[in-house]
């Protein structure tokens, strides 16, 4: 029967021109392949190992093959080498080198947008579908046939006749199923019909379109067929459509369509075979799905096959050497001869041993002892180079004396499982100084200890690089449990691992003073701790980069459970921090000054703080958090995810999910600035007291650009926000599904706090006592061009808004302009006022939703205690001290409100809260919309477009009754290549309309026009800071007075 397989391959070989050789050179004409998920420990590859044992058992006596596992750069080098040596003809290959896990013409952000929110599949799943649809055959060039066997597939029966059939066909599949993904059916089939129509094609294997697809977790394919121009044209059309990313088109329907369009019916065959599929827990018998199987039965297949099969290379080598050593000509990689009768005990070819990472010859010195290594280092002159090869599995005990490397370039490498240097907690391992360079590869550093700093090594004005290294059980009694650096550089890469390190004071792993470090390429840092600050990092005046799937897990400290930034710059990309803890502030990160950028899919998960800032604690500096996530964070006191007591935080296209605290379930801010933009979200945040989403008692908050605060909960008040002092602007965003057990289903405001909600939605908020949407016990609340929908209170009053004030003089100020209240529950009062709050209501619309009786809106009881008269056009009319709606008809639906009659309007007087702020008689076009109110506070709205990065301006107002600033801002430098810097020219104080001019600096209108901003001043000196984010609205904040200017884009 084996002759059938041999003949099939021979026939296939002569059918077409040979393909270009693969980079590594195929040792066989058949390649089996899969795409692995990756992982940082060998336990993550147990399923893959079991699958390959099944594969070896199924094919060993039939045919030779190469086994290739593609990955996305997330398999550490040590694991690659270990598994490659253990399994038959096995190797890893990076799919990214063949165009995988990229988005082609689509940008990364566009790809993320196309991955619809409701899908449970992450972006990586779409990358997998893209690779397995269009790139796999490109990556396997040089082979004639390819067999896909996913890492969760166990082949239990593969008859020789079936394999021979597969290797004489264009495509052979093990199972045909019905497409279950409804969106693929709804979008791919119509696209396919349009493609066939425009290309004037009919299927060669009808029907098409079809909901029956070839299941692609196993198939055998002739690679030359997939390089046919017609097939490539079809795949390119699929790729250009964007359907893989927009609609999650899988590789199975795409491959099926290609085969039914262009395949020959006699060359696409259904195989008689058996296999088990772990992901769906089902069995395929005779090429047909029989029944779903329990996990225990699936695992029993593996246990049985593992017991039967001895699949490691070492075992294979031993068998091969004993039985075939003399007849194979000494070539361990030669394919076994194909005979007509399979041997009773298979003797697979021996796999050639993996060479060392850097061979010992060719310039490398081999040393047999630590004494020889020390002598070689000492004999190297300053500025000289020494390259040393340490034999694999060699162990060297340092004997209480560190290895000193000074003024030379030293490289230590090993191979296989690597060499080990062990300090036995008697000393650190290396001292690198005086401009030296140290390079380590496949070296393990164990049990280092230092009283001062750097348990594994201290680096002084030098550089160190590590690749595929292991550092375990290093500790320091002062700083840097592993590394202590001063004026130096460090690179850790190649899947290195750092485990179980500790510092008694500062930085459990890495202490950096005036230094730079890069930690990348799947490095794992686990179980590190510091008694005081920085469970992993302590950065002072340096630069630290974490990238490319680096993982920090299980770190802890008193402050900054993982990363402490006192000064300098930290950047983190495509990396993860898991399960970090601190007993005080900053469960994962604490910042004092400097700059930190978190971007490109970073994740902070399960971070906890004993006091404040479950994930991040800021007392200064600038934190930019872009396209990343904070998940399942908590703090005992405040700021379940982030606490801000100074500095600037920018949340850009990011999310905070499942955070908890006593107050400020997600964020607490007492000083500084918080900017949320680009559809950032805060979801399922919980406060056991107040401020389920945010607790604001100082500083400034700007939430702009389709941001969402959703599913917030407060056991007491202010489910989404609790504002005491400071200023909050929420514009073009949403607050939805928030619940407070007492007051303020969405917002609670008191003290001198100021909140402006513009062009936004507040919906489905609930309060247990009063203020279904808003509760104001002080401060200023301004609602403009927004919608409040379906807000309710379980109490008898304040279903939408409750205001309570016992202050002497002016109470809370409520300014509501162009608001649509959409009401579902209309029982009780909608507005409640107690005390001396001031209301200004303008252009208010009430829209009854289903279940809301419109008559309730017209009853005096709907507005309890609302005694302040309105100014200008009003939709409310005073009747017996209460307020009622004025509707134009009795028809159902929304009330179409008439303007207040002029006779009534003339009798109204305005009670302005702060008339001394500005001269009411002053004609100011910027404030013209508010002239009818007669209440001119320093507020204004003006269209503005600014194209720049960030602008900081300080203006000192003259101490006169009424002045304005005339100033022109001129930008210095390029606004995108460098931070924008502006200067004020020709500033003067005049008694006329003044302009603060911002020139356009980018795009098609660069240098042409200017936008003018009116600045209205107060009677006393006032310092103002203006902050502008690129292409967004901005606000002018008064540092010494709650006055506020708001300019809308």
Please describe what this structure looks like.
The chain is α/β, with parallel strands linked by helices. Among the domains are: 2-13 and 28-308, Spore Coat Polysaccharide Biosynthesis Protein SpsA, Chain A (Alpha-Beta Complex), CATH 3.90.550; 356-534; 931-1047, no CATH class. The protein contains 17 helices and 85 strands. The protein has a 48-stranded parallel beta sheet that branches. A 7-stranded mixed beta sheet has the order 3-2-1-4-9-6-10. Strand 84 (1034-1038) and strand 85 (1044-1047) form a beta hairpin. The chain is flat, with a radius of gyration of 35 Å. The model is unreliable at 1-27, 104-122, 305-359, 806-810, 853-862 and 864-1049 (pLDDT under 50).
Task: Please outline the helices and strands.
Blueprint: H1 2-15, E1 30-35, H2 46-59, E2 66-71, H3 77-86, E3 90-94, H4 108-114, H5 123-134, H6 136-139, E4 145-149, E5 153-157, H7 160-166, E6 171-173, E7 176-178, H8 182-199, E8 212-214, E9 218-222, H9 223-226, H10 229-241, H11 243-247, H12 251-262, E10 268-270, E11 274-277, E12 282-285, E13 288-292, H13 295-308, H14 313-324, E14 365-366, H15 370-379, E15 385-389, E16 395-397, E17 403-406, E18 409-413, E19 419-422, E20 430-433, E21 437-441, E22 443-446, E23 449-450, E24 457-460, E25 463-467, E26 470-472, E27 475-476, E28 483-486, E29 489-493, E30 497-499, E31 502-503, E32 510-513, E33 516-519, E34 524-526, E35 529-530, E36 537-540, E37 543-546, E38 551-553, E39 556-557, E40 563-565, E41 569-573, E42 576-578, E43 581-582, E44 589-591, E45 595-599, E46 603-605, E47 608-609, E48 616-618, E49 622-626, E50 629-631, E51 634-635, E52 642-652, E53 655-657, E54 660-663, E55 667-677, E56 681-683, E57 686-690, E58 694-704, E59 708-710, E60 713-714, E61 721-731, E62 734-736, E63 739-740, E64 747-749, E65 754-758, ...
Parallel strand pairs: 1-2, 1-4, 2-3, 6-10, 14-15, 15-18, 16-19, 17-20, 18-21, 19-22, 20-24, 21-25, 22-26, 23-27, 24-28, 25-29, 26-30, 27-31, 28-32, 29-33, 30-34, 31-35, 32-36, 33-37, 34-38, 36-40, 37-41, 38-42, 39-43, 40-44, 41-45, 42-46, 43-47, 44-48, 45-49, 46-50, 47-51, 48-52, 49-52, 50-53, ...
Antiparallel strand pairs: 4-9, 5-11, 6-9, 7-8, 11-12, 12-13, 76-77, 78-83, 79-80, 81-82, 83-84, 84-85
Helix pairs in contact: 1-7, 2-13, 5-12, 10-12
């Amino acid at each position: 029967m084996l002759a059938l397989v041999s003949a099939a391959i021979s026939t296939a070989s002569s059918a077409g021109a040979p393909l270009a050789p693969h980079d590594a050179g195929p040792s066989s004409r058949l390649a089996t392949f899969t795409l692995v998920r990756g992982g940082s420990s060998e336990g993550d590859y147990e399923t893959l190992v079991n699958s390959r044992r099944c594969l070896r058992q199924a094919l060993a006596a039939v045919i030779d093959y190469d086994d290739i596992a593609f990955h996305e750069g997330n398999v550490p080098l040590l694991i690659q080498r270990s598994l490659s040596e253990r399994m038959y003809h096995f190797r890893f290959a990076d799919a990214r080198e063949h165009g995988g896990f990229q988005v082609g013409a689509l940008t990364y952000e566009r790809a993320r947008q196309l991955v619809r929110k409701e899908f449970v599949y992450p972006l990586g799943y779409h990358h997998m579908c893209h690779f397995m649809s269009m790139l796999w055959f490109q990556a396997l060039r040089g082979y004639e046939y390819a067999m896909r066997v996913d890492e969760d597939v166990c082949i239990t029966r593969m008859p020789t006749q079936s394999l021979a059939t597969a290797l004489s066909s264009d495509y052979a599949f093990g199972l045909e199923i019905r497409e279950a993904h409804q969106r693929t059916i709804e979008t791919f089939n119509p696209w396919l019909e349009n493609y066939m129509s425009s290309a004037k094609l009919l299927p060669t294997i009808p029907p098409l379109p079809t909901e029956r697809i070839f299941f692609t977790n196993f198939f055998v394919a002739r690679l030359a067929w997939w390089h046919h121009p017609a097939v490539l044209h079809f795949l390119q059309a699929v790729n250009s459509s964007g359907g893989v990313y927009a609609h999650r088109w899988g590789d199975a329907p795409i491959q099926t369509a290609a085969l039914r369009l262009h395949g020959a019916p006699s060359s696409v065959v259904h195989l008689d075979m058996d296999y088990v599929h772990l992901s769906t827990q089902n069995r395929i018998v005779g090429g047909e799905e029989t029944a779903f199987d329990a996990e225990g039965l699936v695992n029993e297949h593996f246990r049985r096959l593992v017991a039967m099969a001895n699949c490691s290379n070492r075992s294979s080598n031993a068998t091969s050497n004993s039985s075939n050593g003399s007849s194979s000509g000494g070539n361990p990689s030669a394919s076994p001869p194909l005979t007509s009768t399979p041997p009773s005990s298979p003797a697979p070819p021996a796999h050639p041993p993996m060479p060392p990472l850097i061979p010992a010859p060719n310039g490398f010195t081999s040393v047999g002892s630590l004494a020889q290594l020390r002598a070689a280092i000492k004999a190297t002159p300053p500025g000289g180079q020494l390259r040393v090869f340490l034999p694999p599995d060699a162990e060297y005990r340092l004997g209480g004396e560190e290895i000193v490397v000074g003024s030379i370039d030293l490289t230590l490498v090993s191979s296989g499982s690597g060499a080990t240097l062990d300090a036995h907690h008697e000393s650190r391992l290396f001292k690198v100084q005086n401009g030296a360079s140290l390079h380590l590869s496949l070296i393990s550093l164990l049990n280092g200890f230092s009283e001062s700093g750097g348990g594994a090594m201290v680096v002084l004005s030098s550089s160190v690089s590590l690749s595929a290294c292991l550092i375990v059980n290093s500790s320091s009694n002062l700083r840097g449990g592993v590394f202590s650096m001063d004026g130096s550089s460090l690179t850790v890469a190649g899947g290195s691992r750092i485990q179980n390190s500790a510092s008694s004071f500062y930085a459990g792993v890495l202490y950096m003073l005036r230094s730079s470090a890069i930690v990348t390429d799947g490095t794992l840092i686990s179980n590190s701790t510091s008694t005081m600050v920085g469970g992993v990092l302590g950065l002072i005046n340096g630069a630290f980069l974490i990238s490319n799937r680096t993982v920090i897990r299980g770190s802890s400290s008193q402050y900054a459970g993982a990363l402490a930034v006192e000064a300098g710059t930290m950047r983190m990309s495509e990396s993860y921090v898991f399960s970090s803890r601190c007993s005080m502030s900053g469960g994962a990160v604490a910042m004092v000054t400097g700059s930190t950028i978190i971007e490109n899919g970073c994740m902070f998960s399960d971070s906890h703080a004993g006091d404040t800032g479950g994930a991040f604690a800021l007392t200064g500096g600038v934190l930019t958090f872009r396209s990343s996530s904070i998940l399942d964070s908590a703090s005992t006191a405040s700021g379940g995810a982030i606490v801000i007591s100074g500095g600037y935080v920018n949340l850009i296209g990011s999310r905070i999910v499942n955070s908890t605290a006593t107050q400020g379930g997600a964020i607490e801010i007492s000083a500084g600035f918080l900017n949320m933009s680009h559809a950032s979200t805060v979801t399922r945040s919980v406060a056991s007291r107040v401020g389920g989403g945010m607790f604001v008692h100082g500083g400034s908050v700007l939430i702009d650009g389709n941001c969402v605060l959703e599913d917030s909960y407060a056991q007491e008040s202010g489910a989404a926000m609790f504002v005491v002092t400071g200023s909050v602007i929420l514009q073009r965003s949403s607050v939805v599904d928030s619940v407070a057990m007492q007051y303020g289903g969405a917002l609670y405001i008191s003290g001198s706090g100021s909140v402006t909600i513009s062009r936004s939605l507040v919906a489905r908020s609930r309060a247990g006592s009063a203020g279904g949407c808003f509760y104001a016990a002080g401060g200023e609340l301004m609602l403009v061009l927004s919608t409040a929908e379906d807000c309710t209170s379980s109490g008898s009053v304040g279903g939408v808004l409750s205001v309570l004030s016992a202050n002497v003089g002016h109470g809370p100020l409520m300014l509501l302009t162009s608001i649509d209240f959409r009401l579902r529950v209309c029982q009780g009062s909608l507005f409640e006022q107690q005390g001396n709050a001031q209301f200004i209501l303008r252009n208010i619309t009430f829209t009854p939703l289903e279940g809301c009786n419109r008559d309730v809106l017209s009853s005096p009881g709907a507005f309890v205690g609302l005694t302040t008269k309105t100014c200008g056009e009003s939709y409310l009319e005073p009747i017996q001290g209460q307020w009622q709606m004025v509707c134009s008809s009795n028809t159902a639906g929304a009330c179409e409100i008439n303007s207040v009659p002029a006779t009534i309007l003339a009798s109204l007087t305005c009670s302005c809260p702060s008339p001394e702020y500005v001269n009411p008689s002053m004609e100011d076009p910027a404030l013209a919309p508010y002239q009818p109110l007669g209440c001119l506070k320093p507020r204004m709205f003006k269209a503005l477009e600014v194209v720049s990065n960030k602008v900081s301006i300080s203006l000192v107002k003259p101490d006169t009754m009424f002045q304005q600033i005339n100033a022109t801002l001129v930008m210095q430098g390029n606004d995108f290549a460098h931070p924008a810097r502006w200067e004020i020219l020709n500033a003067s104080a005049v008694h006329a309309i003044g302009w603060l001019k911002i020139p356009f600096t980018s795009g098609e209108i660069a240098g042409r026009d200017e936008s003018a901003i009116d600045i209205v001043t107060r009677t006393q000196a006032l310092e103002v800071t203006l902050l502008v984010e690129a292409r967004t609205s901005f606000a002018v904040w008064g540092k010494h007075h709650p006055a506020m200017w708001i300019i809308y884009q």
